[in-house]
Amino acid sequence: MRIILFFILFAYSSATLINNDMIAKLSNSNLNHFSFVVMGDNRDGNNILNKIILKTNQDSSIKFLINNGDFLPNGYQKEYKSYLQIIKNSEKPILSVIGNHEIPWYDGKTNYKKIFGNTDFSFTCGNSYFIVLDSSDKKISKKQFIWLEKELEISQQYLNRFVVSHVPLYDPREGKYQRGHSFKKLKQAKKLNNLFDKYNVTMFFGSHIHLYFKGMWHNTPYIITGGAGAPLKKNGFYHYIKVIVNGANIEYKVVKIDAKPLSLIEQGVQSIKDIFNLGDK
């Protein structure tokens, strides 16, 4: 089993990094009208992820999907293998963003980088610029902030600017502009909020909280989408966001997935399956 896993991971890392390969499929896109999907937090819920892939495969208008972090329970290599087997079933490119659950305690971000590439990256699709920011530590470094501002400067050449990051700036459940299941320090969250306001970010997509929220942080609109399969919070529901881009007119649709939330026992069983790669083949 270990030998097979090694060759699977080696084949991906030696040939091409997966996110780079997915972006390459979008490189020739000269579109002003297209749709894409944002989802987050499918850990311990591969059955929901499978349903999302099946549903999006049937929607010809969708160009690509972004999985906004916590797509693994613990970041172990066996879990990466299981995830890669699932996303192979997608007929659309899936870009996978690092979240806090992709970081095993003993190996940092090594597994993610070997398979997917840089944890901070950007790409374009038609008239839109996408910036993916690694917030898996619930904070960003000074180096990341400098990189982010440069990317936002570049994004001004495009009609739409989307920022995707696993951890939200604030936790809406705690009140307006409050800390919770969000960035560790309000000072940094506010600094990022000011930066997004300055560069007129079209939409900030966060996850990490296993619910759905939509609102405004000062002048920056945000969506939190954390319903792709992980254990739901009270009043939560499984879902993904379909984003329909029509020039500067953008529509955000919440697409619900019809599935009964797992019980605590079922969640535990699913976690064990993910760790030992005993899930559906």
By CATH, the topology is Purple Acid Phosphatase, chain A, domain 2
Kindly state the number of beta strands. Answer: 11
Silhouette = globular
CATH arch. level architecture: 4-Layer Sandwich
- Counting H and I runs of at least 4 residues, what is the number of helices? 8
Task: Provide the CATH superfamily.
Answer: Metallo-dependent phosphatases
State mean pLDDT (0 to 100 scale): 90
Helix/strand structural class: alpha/beta
Helix and strand pattern: HHEHEHEHEEHEHEEEEEH
Unreliable stretches covering 5 or more consecutive residues: 1-15, 277-281
- Tally of distinct domains: 1
Question: What does this molecule look like?
Answer:
The protein is an alpha/beta fold and 281 residues long. It has a single domain, classed as Metallo-dependent phosphatases (Purple Acid Phosphatase, chain A, domain 2, 4-Layer Sandwich), CATH 3.60.21. The chain contains 8 helices and 11 strands. The protein has helices spanning 2-15, 18-24, 46-57, 77-87, 110-116, 142-155, 186-198, 264-275, and strands spanning 33-39, 62-67, 94-96, 121-125, 128-133, 160-165, 203-206, 212-217, 220-225, 239-246, 249-256. It has a 6-stranded mixed β-sheet. A hairpin with a 2-residue loop joins strand 8 (212-217) and strand 9. It is globular, with a radius of gyration of 18 Å. Mean pLDDT is 90; it is low at 1-15 and 277-281.
